[in-house]
Amino acid sequence: MGRSPCCEKAHTNKGAWTKEEDHRLIAYIRAHGEGCWRSLPKAAGLLRCGKSCRLRWINYLRPDLKRGNFTEDEDELIIKLHSLLGNKWSLIAGRLPGRTDNEIKNYWNTHIRRKLLNWGIDPATHRPVNDGQTNNHHPTTTTTTNINNRSSSLDVTTTTISFANTSPNQFVKEEMEDEKLNSDRNIKTLLPEIQERCPDLNLDLRISPPHYQNIQNNSSSSSSSSSSSSYIQPQVQHVQYNHYHHQYEHQHHQALKTGGSFAGGNSTNICFSCSLGITNSKECSCTTSLNGTTSNNNTGYDFLGLNSGVLDYRSIEIMK
DNA sequence: AAGGGACTCAACCGCCTGGCC
DNA sequence: AGGCCAGGCGGTTGAGTCCCT
Questions:
Q1: pLDDT at A131
Q2: N or C: which end of chain A has fewer CB within 10 A?
Q3: Residue pLDDT, tens place only, A237-295
Q4: How far is the CA of A36 from the C1' of B19 (A)?
Q5: pLDDT tens sequence across A103-139
Q6: What totals of helices (H) and strands (E) does chain A contain, helices first?
């Protein structure tokens, strides 16, 4: 026995929404709020499937939607979130206020995928295309050059992934260069160039213990060039989102000042939302105020932020 | 100007999940 | 425990638009 249809398809409109339908839907939701999508079309006088109404509202009519092109910062954030979360568009959208999962999914498939491919990076794995070795479960010794390593007042070693230096014009130029180069050379010869172009782009992922442990070990992870790495003795590099750099450092500084740890430590937690600058969001599950007081007595490591309900990118580290 | 291929993105489809009975 | 249902999600489609020849 098949599933019952969500609506009577014979009596519903399909395809593009008309302005009148939009107005009806908006008026109804303003008056009655969201929810009960199945009964909404009838109540609102719409010949639409409830799902269709929900989608139209969420993806297009919602007043808090941010219209217009994605910014470089948003690009950057989407790439990083995708490297952490995969095709979990709704989760990614949750970190980008005003953007919908559908919008991000489309943008990924039409723009970012191609951009990464032009860089020689597999958008699915965030690894260099043709890099068979890195698919190995046992990472080999590699050399890393940490050019964009920003020193902070905290003397905490971090590696900043930055696309910010690349202006739109540069992108166009680089894409043209890429096409030429791809036709001229074997892709293998390109890999060093890709790394040179994005010297701080290291998209190999691993899950590590809380960040505070790495603070203690930071002296061993700040070298600007080679060292061997393995899962046993990792060379730790932290992902850090440039545009939230300042806020993060502030929070981190406060946490250290008060003797606590930051985001992933076992005494205080700054939630993922806040670490991304999405303060006061419904996702916020901070257990610590910035003055260092703790409002929750969770103990142990919250893998993937499951206890706090959100991912904590600070504890998801990138290594080579 | 016209044809056609490439691209974009709103919308649809089908599956999954969780709540309720 | 199992069925039903609503909501949500990710993958896919296709109409409209853009761009190149």
A1: 57
A2: N
A3: 333 333 333 343 344 344 333 333 333 333 334 444 444 444 444 444 444 333 333 33
A4: 14
A5: 998 899 888 888 888 888 888 888 887 655 444 333 3
A6: 12, 5
- Which tokens go with A247? 């806020």
A60 touches strand B (CB under 7 A): yes
End-to-end Cα spacing for chain A: 51
Q: Kindly calculate the radius of gyration of chain A based on its CA atoms and give it in whole angstroms.
A: 23
Using the 8-state DSSP alphabet, how is residue A152 labeled? -
Say yes or no: Cβ of A102 under 7 A from any atom of strand B: yes
Sheet holding A205-207, edge to edge: A205-207, A316-319, A236-237
The answer to whether strand B lies under 7 Å from the CB of residue A306 is no
Spanning CA of A170 to C1' of B3, the rounded length in angstroms is 33
- Can you read off the two tokens belonging to residue A60? 């297009």
- Give the CA-to-C1' distance from A59 to C5 in angstroms: 23
Domains and CATH numbers, chain A: 9-61 (1.10.10.60), 68-136+164-197 (1.10.10.60), 149-162+205-319 (no CATH)
pLDDT at position A307, please? 38
Whole-number Å distance, CA A6 to C1' C4?
Answer: 12
A99 touches strand B (CB under 7 A): no
Answer yes or no: is A55 CB < 7 A from strand B: yes
